[in-house]
Amino acid sequence: MSDIIIQAESTGKEFPSGDRRLAVLKEISFQIMKGEIFSIVGPSGAGKSTLLHLMGLLDKPTAGKILFKGQDTALFSASQAALLRNTTFGFVFQFYHLIPELTVVENTVLPFMIRHSYFSWMINKSKLYKRAHSLLEKLGLGERLKHRANQLSGGESQRVAIARALITEPEIIFCDEPTGNLDQATSREIQSLIWEMNKDSGLTFVIVTHDENIAKKAHHMIKLVDGKIVPGESTAK
Amino acid sequence: MYKLFLAWRYLLSRKIIFFSIAGIAVGVMVLIIVTSVMGGFVRDVRQKIRGISSDLSVSVSDEFKTFSRFFGDYKADSRQLLDEIRAIPYVAYASPRLEWGAMLSTKDNRGAPVMVIGIEPATEDKVSNLSEYLVYKRSTDFRLEDKDPEPPGAIVGRYVGAYELGTGQQERSAFDWEPGQSIALTTVMSRDGMLQTQQGEFTIVDEFYSGLFDQDSVALYLSLKQAQLFLKTEDITKITIRLTDYKYAQEATRRINEILGKSVRYFQIKTWEDEKENILTAVTVEKRIQAIILFCVVIVACFNILAMLTMRVVEKTKDIGILSSLGSTRYGIMQLFLYQGLIISFLGCLFGVVSGYLFTINLNKIQFLLKSWFGLEVFPPNIYKIGDIPWEIDVPTIITITLLTVSMSIIFSIYPAIKAARMEPVEALRYE
């Protein structure tokens, strides 16, 4: 039981749509174990990203519960949720979501800038920049450190996003269509990077994708259609 | 830490920001220039008023002046009162005065209203700095008590008989005063229920010019003795006092009140500021009103910040989502946009203060250049009666302008900041 990092219990999410309420997620239940790659697959509009946002504490369910290490996330205050997103979670999005005004290395250390006060940042700045340099070099971005985010290719941008997610040494990384905007070769490169990191450091990944080939390679997979888990098509290795 | 850093980067990324900074800078610069020039005018006016004013004056209270202005009519022996006032430790000098309204006429039948001021030449110059404002000769007795000329001497205000044009321009007196001119004074006094006319002839011995039109257009100084002969009285209407230090004004007032005893209710003791309250208040209020009107420029610039930041919130919607996903709180997002407003106002104030200061201290050089290049006179000396444009850099005023501007900018940044903070992270991330 202690290895369960995230658990969904009859989770539902509705959004207002005019006078009615639109149910995007219905009765979703699953468990994500520490150190596994958990994939969520399904067609567009199935509720995959919404489910990821609920797990990442970017949104709150309207029914059921999402538990993080056994604790109901609905009970977390806004600042507790922000702290968890900063220290324990990492996010990688389809459109990279880098800050265009910042350089590659500044984008990478951004979570630390958010965490630290001015004085604490000044004390730790050089150490954290070194860590970012080394991480970016490992990801093949050693030559691009001073480049602005809008000067990078898609694959490079996604690697910067991965570096930004990894730098805080989180317990879990949420990836929303991480290869959805990349060509096949770059997509394969990013996939192998994810699997490598999972294997080397036991980092937990939750990957939302519409590509079943990627999803099936995960330790656990659930398929969502119309906001519901399709029972027969969920797999576990 | 990221808020200030990111706010700075956001601002650098858009050139439109420089217009917002320029807006604030121009507003602050104009405010500093105008308040400094007005401050210079106020200082000059105060100095001029101060120069011709005594520290304290004792006269019959306004409510009793209708009945009589003479001390003797209120059971006050003016000689004894003067001696007792002179004995007060805080009093350096005290001088008697006899002030009375009269009509002046010249031999060619032109006339003008004047305020006859009878003074004791030996003490008057020690109480006010009258001799400094005499045009022809600075003698301690003003030649008022000279045997020559005959008839007795009078000092006339430069603008006695002058009229003011609608523009505020003051014409040189139509009488074109010069020493040696003969004048006649006529007044009426009520004696034993009858109005009696008093007349006298005098010779102009000097011209009085303080730069204050109100004074220069009515003052006519005689010696106290001659004024008393003219008005057929031995009494006085005022005692003017120079203190050892102006800070003792309150204590000296208290002591004079004690001396006046039971007659105190008939008299009023005024400091020079009380005496010239109207003009001092007028120039100060004018300075304040101009500052308030010009502060509207800063408010317009603040609206510019509001519009620019509101636009930036929309532009940066996705970034708000990213920052939320990286652990930024709503308060942090709010601060990020408040800091942008703060940086704009800070830089605007910095440029505004520096340029306002440089402009002000070089104001006369700039005026000279404008005149020599374009023939443009900003302050025509024949209208403003000033050689150089007066200015006074007042640090507390600059601090107030800066603090008000920064506060206004923060207030105007609150709306976009709250708008940004209220944004749902998920909605922001979906925004394209």
Q: Could you explain how this protein is built, in words?
A:
The complex is a heterodimer of chains A (237) and B (432). Chain A has 237 residues and is of the alpha/beta class. Chain A is 37% helix and 28% strand. The radius of gyration of chain A is 18 Å and the shape is globular. The model of chain A has no long low-confidence stretch (mean pLDDT 90). Chain B has 16 helices and 9 strands. In chain B, strands 2-3-7-4-6-5 form a 6-stranded mixed barrel. The longest helix of chain B is centred in the last third of the chain and has 39 residues, at 277-315. The relative contact order of chain B is 0.19. Classes of the chains: A alpha/beta (237), B alpha+beta (432). Chain A binds chain B through residues 50, 53, 56, 58-59, 78-79, 82-87, 91, 93, 95, 97-102, 110-111, 113-118, 120-121, 164, and chain B through 1-2, 4-6, 9-10, 12-13, 318-319, 321-330, 332, 424-426, 429, 432.
What is the fold's blueprint, element by element?
The complex is a heterodimer of chains A (237) and B (432).
Chain A lengths: L3 E14 L2 E14 L3 E5 L6 H8 L7 E6 L2 E2 L5 H10 L1 E5 L10 H12 L2 H21 L15 H13 L5 E5 L7 H18 L2 E6 L2 H5 L3 E6 L2 E2 L5 E2 L1
Parallel strand pairs in A: 3-8, 3-9, 6-7, 7-8
Antiparallel strand pairs in A: 1-2, 1-4, 4-5, 9-10, 9-11
Helix pairs in contact in A: 3-4, 3-5
Chain B lengths: L1 H11 L3 H37 L3 E5 L1 H4 L12 H9 L4 E16 L4 E9 L1 H7 L25 E5 L24 E10 L2 E15 L4 H4 L2 E5 H8 L6 E6 L5 H12 L6 E5 H4 L1 H39 L1 H9 L4 H32 L1 H12 L6 H4 L10 H27 L3 H6 L2
Parallel strand pairs in B: 3-7, 4-6
Antiparallel strand pairs in B: 1-8, 1-9, 2-3, 2-5, 2-8, 4-7, 5-6
Helix pairs in contact in B: 1-12, 2-10, 2-12, 2-15, 10-12, 10-15, 12-15
How far is it from the N-terminal to the C-terminal residue of chain B, by CA?
27 Å
The main pleated sheet of chain A reads as: 7 strands, mixed
**Main sheet makeup of chain B:** 6 strands, mixed, barrel
Q: How large, in whole angstroms, is the Cα Rg of chain A?
A: 18 Å
Poorly predicted segments of chain B: 165-170
